[in-house]
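Entry type: protein chain
Record version: 2
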Amino acid sequence: MAKSENQKVKTLYVAKYFLENSDENHPVTAGDVVDYLKDECGIEAERRAIYRDIAALRDVFGMDIEGGQGGKYRLLSRQFEFDDLRLLAECVHAAKFISARQAKDLVDTLGEFCSTYQAEQLQREVFLCDRVKTTI
């Protein structure tokens, strides 16, 4: 019997943690995942269980998680590459028919397809060329 109701979906929480907190430049450790599960999800887990979850995410779900040596893991690929999301964010901000508020909301939505670090970078790296946004 599971120790808590959320114990049954622990692997999904591990996947969520990787999607939100790891990318090519930001590795995480099994200890980071254990702390997240305990603090945010109310799930007690051992590092060995996290290793099994990572193996399942790789083998069964096809997540491109690299690592193991040195205890650090990185999520290498996602549904969308970061450069593609950056290009979309720039296009959204450059479109004259999209208000500044709508553009910010759309870029926030694009940020859901990358890590939190990359989402912050999407908001910072918007290049606008001599245009006036409408305010709606």
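Comment: Residues 11 and 118 are 23 Å apart (CA to CA).
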